[in-house]
């Protein structure tokens, strides 16, 4: 009885190795991966978490861990990884079964490794951790946004004070007793200082779009404002604070 030959590991029936998938990009913080069918079939623990991570688009198929898998060796076996050089993944933090932190690093020797990127698996969903420079850029952008907004509001209020005082001087030339006199020259000087400081600040970054289906909450003050005036620029999204409730640990 004829039997079908088994496919060799890491290859095809022609004996040639399969084409390597495209390498994952550096910035993939805008996507996440989740395979609910796998999670319903296998437990997510230390021994199987790497197999689950290898299904995601974050996985680099040219890493040393993949070579160990092809040789039927556990991909996180440090005794074998320390003897190799190149890109590898290591399990750095574990809080079973909710959180697993996977670090991508480059190994140049048994004791010489250079961290590259970090990924975390939170309740079965895989994310790429943001880089520190992106976190600083987002928070500085938020600070500049609010500073620029404050200068704009202060300048507009000073202009209104100057217009009201000019109209009152046109109606009567006798100042009222007890009324505070506003010096128009001083108002213009302060307005000029605020305008010059505002010009020195870099322009505020464009506000990110709201997620699909998101409806911002309407406050009591916003209900009395016309719809044309309710559109307001939003500060940049913080890659750590604005991660959404789905990325928080459920204990």
TrEMBL record:
Component of the Mediator complex, a coactivator involved in the regulated transcription of nearly all RNA polymerase II-dependent genes. Mediator functions as a bridge to convey information from gene-specific regulatory proteins to the basal RNA polymerase II transcription machinery. Mediator is recruited to promoters by direct interactions with regulatory proteins and serves as a scaffold for the assembly of a functional preinitiation complex with RNA polymerase II and the general transcription factors. This is Mediator of RNA polymerase II transcription subunit 6. Residues 1-21, 225-251 are annotated as: Disordered. GO terms for biological process: regulation of transcription by RNA polymerase II. Keywords: Activator, Nucleus, Transcription, Transcription regulation. It is found in: Nucleus. GO terms for molecular function: transcription coregulator activity. It comes from the Eukaryota. GO terms for cellular component: mediator complex. Component of the Mediator complex.
């Amino acid at each position: 009885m004829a039997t079908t030959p088994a496919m060799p590991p890491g290859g095809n029936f022609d004996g040639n190795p399969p084409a390597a998938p495209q390498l994952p990009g550096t910035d993939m913080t805008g996507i996440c991966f989740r395979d609910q069918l796998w999670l319903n079939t296998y437990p997510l623990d230390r021994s199987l978490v790497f197999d689950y991570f290898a299904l995601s688009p974050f996985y680099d198929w040219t890493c040393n861990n993949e070579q160990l898998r092809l040789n039927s060796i556990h991909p996180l076996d440090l005794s074998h990884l320390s003897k190799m050089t190149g890109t590898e993944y290591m399990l750095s933090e574990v809080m079973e079964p909710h959180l697993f932190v996977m670090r991508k690093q480059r190994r140049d020797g048994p004791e010489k490794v250079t961290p590259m990127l970090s990924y975390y698996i939170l309740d079965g969903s895989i994310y790429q951790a943001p880089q520190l420079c992106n976190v600083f850029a987002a928070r500085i952008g938020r600070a500049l946004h609010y500073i620029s907004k404050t200068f704009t509001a202060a300048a507009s209020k000073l202009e209104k004070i100057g217009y009201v005082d000019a109209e009152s001087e046109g109606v009567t030339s006798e100042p009222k007793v007890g009324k505070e006199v506003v010096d128009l020259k001083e108002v213009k000087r302060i307005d000029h200082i605020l305008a010059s400081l505002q010009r020195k600040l870099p322009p505020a970054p464009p506000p990110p779009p709201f997620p699909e289906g998101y409806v911002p909450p309407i406050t009591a003050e916003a209900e009395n404002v016309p719809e044309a005036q309710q559109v307001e620029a939003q500060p940049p999204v913080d890659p750590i604070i604005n991660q959404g409730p789905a990325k928080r640990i459920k204990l």
